[in-house]
Amino acid sequence: MEPQAPTTVVGIDLGTTNSLAATIRNGRPEVFRDSTGIALVPSCLSFHPDGTVLVGTAAKERALLDPTHTIFSVKRLMGRTLADLQGELKHIPQQIVEREVQPGRKVLRVRVDDKEYTPEELSAMILQEVRKRAGNPTKAVITVPAYFDDAQRQATRDAGRIAGLDVLRIVNEPTAAALAYGLDKADAGTIAVYDLGGGTFDCSILSLADGVFKVLSTNGDTYLGGDDFDRAIMDIVSNELKLVPDAELLQHLREAAERAKMALSTADSTELVIDLPQRKIAYRRTFTRTEFESLIAPHIDRSLAKCQAALRDAKLKPSDIAEVVLVGGSTRIPYVRQRVEAFFGRKPHTDLNPDEVVALGAAVQADILTSGRRDRLLLDVIPLSLGIETLGGVVDKVIDRNSTVPCQATTRYTTFVDNQTAITINIYQGERELTQDCRLLGQFKLGGIPPMPAQMAQVDVTFRVDANGMLRVQAKEQRSGQQAIIEVKASHGLSQDEVERLVLESVDHAHADFSARRFIEYKNKADADLRHTAKALDQAGAELTPEQRARIDAATATLKAAMAGTDADDLHRAVDAFGAATLPLAELLMNAAAKKLLRGQHDDAIES
Ligand code: ADP
Ligand code: MG
Q1: CATH of segment(s) 382-493
Q2: In a mutational test of the pocket of ligand 1, which residue from 17, 127, 229 has the highest number of ligand atoms less than 8 Å from its CB?
Q3: What tens digit of pLDDT does each residue of 196-221 get?
Q4: Domain 510-607 in this protein, CATH class
Q5: CA of 362, nearest ligand number
Q6: Atom 20 in ligand 1: which residue has the minimum CA distance?
Q7: Among all residues, which ones are annotated catalytic?
Q8: How many CA atoms, within 13 angstroms, populate the side-chain half-sphere of residue 39?
């Protein structure tokens, strides 16, 4: 789909594996596709020594040649600290470092050679690619998993800013999926969203009442998804190959495994071929759908156990669920559909492409926000409770989870010791009772309290959450009128200044992106030229002089070398030179065509 009129507002699914955008056209949500009909932009980046950054398919393809400069799954790092990631560092191939940019403010960075990038910047590069495909809109709704906490949402919002987007709203992925199916209009009751993507699995139980979606519970596994199915196939193949695969072979295996897996979603059997003559590898093997299903069955069992847990948390049984929505590319697998249907005892919604449904719903939400149609005011809820630390490391909840936003609540506190002139307010998010089990979102101090006996001061702490789920906390001592306010930003992640700086810097990235794009465009042209010339040589090659032929061969070699490189200007020159060298061939063919045409006219003349 080429943008007809410039689109200004889009919905974006910023996924762990794939990202894409959608907008409302003629009253219906539609995803943006490239000229070949592909909507998904792989959430993948490839860095070159010359500073060029490839994004999306081009980057995923380069992964094969240059795995150490390829970055996947940035979403896992968004709004996290090194401490959060301890348990999963073994799954993360990139080198992660943490820098203290200001006292107490830590920022996570990904190292690539001698450069470091924040997860927000990396996600922004993906968003920029998605944005370009959508015709450079200026406003967006971006989706996040329902379990994302304030810091992760803030990081996503910052990434949008860096990519030059005005982020209207951060929306939960399952809510977006339900919206895409119009379940808000049906007053559908309780909805289960089963989302099996590339690397993650989420099950969310939503309830819908009066146009408001509440997340009753979520459960899932941040390391369960289509990648596991690929790996199961890869394990079999690498065992049978009797080779310990190196990085390059591993990438070949991964590609072949994913292709076989996808084929089995529509065919009963498929042949997996790995043909690397230069490494003396020629491998073929048939996989049947039945064999594949037995490979993935344990993973699907695990996902359904998570659904069970989500239902238990919401105090529901499978039969209480009125609607089941399938999300994520891996739910294209027929076996997954069967198992989910059997588990909930009802047919899931499958009319929309499961890997596009979140973006479609985000577009619906963006439309609701910008069209000003009050009849479809759709609100979201706070995913995790917000509170402050009181005596003994206990969290006192000020705003409960599932409160609809925007909202505000005030709780009164007092001083603990005589003549206490300041209190420190620590703000936490989470469902557990103790601070150690919740996440510290920020802290501030209210000073200037006049000395008075313990318990006399009256400090009102007000939490305000705006429509985007962003929190502002105010503390005011009522007797003295002393007050302090903070806009809560996580104690890690980017500061406002850093975001602004990155927005400016992204102009530089835009240059690198532009050069990467030019390279790809010339490469596509070169591919086409080479194909056409090969065909022309078959037809008329014999009529060329040896010099003409030699010039074509030399220009072909130069062109292929430039295609293997990274320099767009080099490639441009090589494409032009190739065009000049093949001119005599084109003339030969044109003459032949003209002759044929003249003969044709002559024949006609005789007949008439
Ligand atoms: P995410 O939400 O994690 O960013 P997606 O929802 O796009 O990702 O899901 C990507 C996963 O879906 C990949 O593992 C991919 O191999 C898998 N997938 C896509 N199409 C098919 C298919 N036809 N059959 C099986 N798996 C598929
Ligand atoms: Mg997804």
Answers
A1: 2.60.34.10
A2: 17
A3: 999 999 999 998 877 778 888 889 99
A4: mainly alpha
A5: 2
A6: 329
A7: 13, 75, 173, 195
A8: 21
